[in-house]
């Protein structure tokens, strides 16, 4: 029985025998089990950094917040004194309200208490208390008081602005050091917010919205933290301080479970950890099928520090470095030197193994800070290569950094979301300019860096020939390919059930792409989430795939499947199934 089957089984028994105070089902997007106390986060709370301050630094963190509150009050006072005579009278009154709020113990004292009692950093404490206060105002009958919720938000933002740059305390890995593990409960979490949450090492995530291949889910998986999304109302059902179990296998969340449920989950978590550990034995085993077909297993990473995990799990290289995560959750753009350092770190640490750096794929659910997406449908808008061609200076800076990193190891460049040949020409022209600049400046780089394209827009997969010709390699981005082929937003919980990787149209596009690449003798991989799903390994092998790139935590489970598969037999089975009208099910391959 698989771990997830065991979990569902345990859950159904529990449902019959006793009941958790509440058990809610959603979509498990990051496996494993977590237990801890709830921290409910609203949008403003999510947008700040989260870290636990060491016990002996608590008072200096309180002092940091006090200083910021004082400085903000002085700033407001100054503003009030320098208001021009013709300024509207409401403005002076508003400044006065803000000053009063800044001194209100409900905001200040309670924030100090959150720092002292829960070890929150000042920003986290202030936004949490601001959120509580704002919610209280919003339920008031008096319209004037109801509107004060907006003032609380503005005051908090002012103080956050003052606090920015004064962070002095290092993040603390709180697990086992301070209090209990914490589980984030939120309506939704953007990928940029998820990156901010990495610092505090939360034990799990539960959200109302989200889909299995949303970038939020992808980052949760990369953090190795169990997560359940699409829970509908979890933000209203769970309260701060509730005890929560996250079952990433079954996609369930138990709020305030019984002692019996807790001990069942402790057992499941221990079994899960043991199974993961046992898989490590496969790390150095040659990755090949029973009939001797070598299968390349590569890692997808979002940030350079994930290289450690990729190597631990035996990755043969990096098949997808989502470079846009270097650009998110910050107010400025990383310059050439900063990017070079990130790329070089990855390249050097991979020690000669290939590193595929994808050029900036910003847009859709990954927005740059301060650059609100204005397109009607961002997933169909100025995203990825479209964005880069519209902002050639950003693209050229990134390309220079990537080429400079190529002097330190094996680099490949991967361009996302290519849709037509004109984009290929434009991108190549910018690459040629970059290379000529580097030559002129006598900067070292590898002139033979392979340049590949993501196959993720159906147009390209359908009209594949000239694209295979134009690139050195292809990588199939099934996450977007499914989204665009089926017209299903990958991040939308309401249509998640229709997001079907096994739809015959999707499988034909994958098959078409693999066949074309093989005809042209060009390497082709899958780097979407399908590649990391062990239930789909045999299907992809049957489609002729020999290069998989996935989150490092999935590598060994997929390797286990590869080792037990017979490639030729699978190819025959899949070829027959592809020609039938019925949808292919993974059961067909067992
Ligand atoms: C994909 O679309 O499958 C892919 C790997 O890229 P991303 O998930 O970053 O869009
Ligand atoms: Mg994509």
Write the layout of secondary structure elements.
Blueprint: H1 3-17, E1 22-25, E2 27-30, E3 33-41, H2 43-46, H3 58-81, H4 89-103, H5 108-118, H6 122-138, H7 143-163, E4 182-186, H8 191-197, E5 204-207, H9 215-223, E6 227-229, H10 234-237, E7 243-247, E8 252-255, H11 259-279, E9 296-301, H12 307-312, E10 318-322, H13 336-349, E11 355-358, H14 385-390, H15 392-405, E12 411-415, H16 421-440, E13 451-455, H17 458-462, H18 465-470, E14 473-476, H19 478-486, H20 504-519, E15 524-526, H21 537-542, E16 547-550, H22 555-563, H23 567-578
Parallel strand pairs: 3-4, 4-5, 5-6, 9-10, 9-16, 10-11, 11-12, 12-13, 13-14, 14-15
Antiparallel strand pairs: 1-8, 2-6, 3-7, 7-8
Helix run count: 23
CATH topology of the largest domain: TIM Barrel
The tally of domains stands at 3
Q: Say how many strands there are.
A: 16
Radius of gyration: 26 Å
Identify the CATH architecture of the largest domain.
Alpha-Beta Barrel
Describe the sheet with the most strands: 8 strands, mixed
Order of strands side by side in the largest beta sheet?
1-8-7-3-4-5-6-2
State the shape.
globular
Strand content: 5-15%
CATH class of the largest domain: Alpha Beta
List the quaternary state of the chains.
single chain
**How widely separated are the two ends?**
14 Å
Structural class designation: alpha/beta
Q: Tell me the name of the CATH homologous superfamily of the largest domain.
A: Phosphoenolpyruvate-binding domains
Weakly predicted, low-confidence segments: 1-8, 13-19, 168-177
Mean pLDDT: 89
Give helix % range. Answer: 40-55%
Ligand inventory reads: phosphoenolpyruvate, magnesium ion
């Amino acid at each position: 029985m698989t771990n997830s089957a065991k979990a569902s089984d345990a859950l159904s028994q529990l449902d019959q025998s006793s009941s958790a105070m509440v058990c809610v089902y959603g979509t498990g997007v990051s496996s494993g089990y977590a237990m801890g106390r709830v921290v409910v986060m609203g949008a403003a709370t999510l947008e700040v950094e989260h870290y636990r301050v060491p016990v002996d630094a608590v008072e200096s963190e309180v002092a940091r917040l006090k200083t910021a509150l004082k400085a903000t009050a002085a700033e407001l006072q100054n503003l009030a004194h320098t208001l021009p005579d013709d300024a509207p009278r409401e403005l002076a009154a508003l400044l006065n309200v803000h000053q009063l709020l800044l001194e209100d113990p409900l905001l200040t004292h309670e924030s100090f208490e959150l720092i002292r009692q829960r070890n929150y950093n000042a920003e986290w404490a202030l936004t949490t208390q601001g959120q509580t206060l704002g919610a209280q105002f919003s339920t008031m009958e008096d319209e004037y008081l109801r509107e004060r919720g907006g003032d609380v938000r503005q005051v908090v933002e002012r103080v956050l602005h003052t606090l920015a740059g004064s962070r002095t305390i290092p993040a603390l890995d709180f697990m086992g050091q301070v209090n209990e593990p914490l589980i984030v409960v939120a309506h939704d979490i953007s990928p940029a917010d998820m990156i901010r949450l990495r610092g505090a090492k939360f034990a799990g995530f539960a959200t109302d919205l989200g889909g299995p291949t949303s970038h939020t889910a992808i980052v949760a998986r990369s953090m190795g933290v169990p997560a359940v999304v699409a829970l509908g109302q979890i933000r209203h059902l769970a309260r701060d301080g509730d005890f929560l179990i996250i079952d990433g296998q079954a996609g369930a969340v138990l709020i305030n479970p019984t002692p019996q449920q807790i001990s069942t989950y402790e057992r499941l978590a221990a079994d899960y950890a043991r199974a993961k550990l046992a898989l490590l034995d496969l790390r150095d085993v040659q990755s090949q099928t029973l009939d001797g077909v070598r299968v390349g297993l590569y890692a997808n990473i979002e940030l350079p520090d994930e290289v450690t995990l990729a190597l631990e799990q035996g990755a043969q290289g990096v098949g997808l470095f989502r470079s846009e995560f270097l650009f998110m959750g910050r107010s400025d753009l990383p310059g050439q030197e900063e990017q070079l350092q990130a790329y070089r770190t990855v390249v050097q640490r991979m020690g000669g193994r290939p590193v595929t750096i994808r050029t900036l794929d910003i847009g859709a659910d990954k927005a740059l800070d301060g650059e609100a997406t204005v397109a009607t449908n961002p997933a169909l808008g100025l995203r990825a290569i479209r964005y880069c061609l519209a902002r050639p200076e950003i693209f050229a800076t990134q390309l220079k950094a990537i080429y400079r990193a190529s002097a330190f190891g094996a680099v490949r460049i991967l361009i996302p979301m290519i849709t037509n040949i004109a984009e290929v020409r434009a991108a190549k022209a910018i690459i040629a300019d970059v290379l000529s600049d580097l030559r002129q400046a006598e900067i070292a780089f590898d002139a033979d860096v392979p340049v590949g394209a993501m196959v993720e827009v159906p147009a390209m997969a359908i009209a594949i020939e000239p694209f295979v010709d134009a690139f050195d390699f292809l990588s199939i981005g099934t996450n977007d390919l499914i989204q665009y082929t089926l017209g299903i937003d990958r991040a939308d919980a309401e249509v998640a059930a229709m997001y079907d990787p096994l739809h015959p149209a999707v499988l034909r596009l994958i098959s078409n792409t693999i066949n074309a690449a093989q005809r042209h003798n060009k390497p082709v991989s899958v780097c979407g989430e399908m590649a990391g799903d062990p239930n789909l390994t045999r299907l992809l092998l049957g489609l002729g795939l020999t290069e998989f790139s996935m989150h490092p935590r999935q590598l060994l489970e997929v390797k286990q499947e590869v080792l037990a598969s017979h490639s030729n037999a699978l190819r025959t089975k899949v070829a027959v199934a592809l020609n039938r009208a019925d949808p292919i099910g993974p059961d067909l391959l067992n």
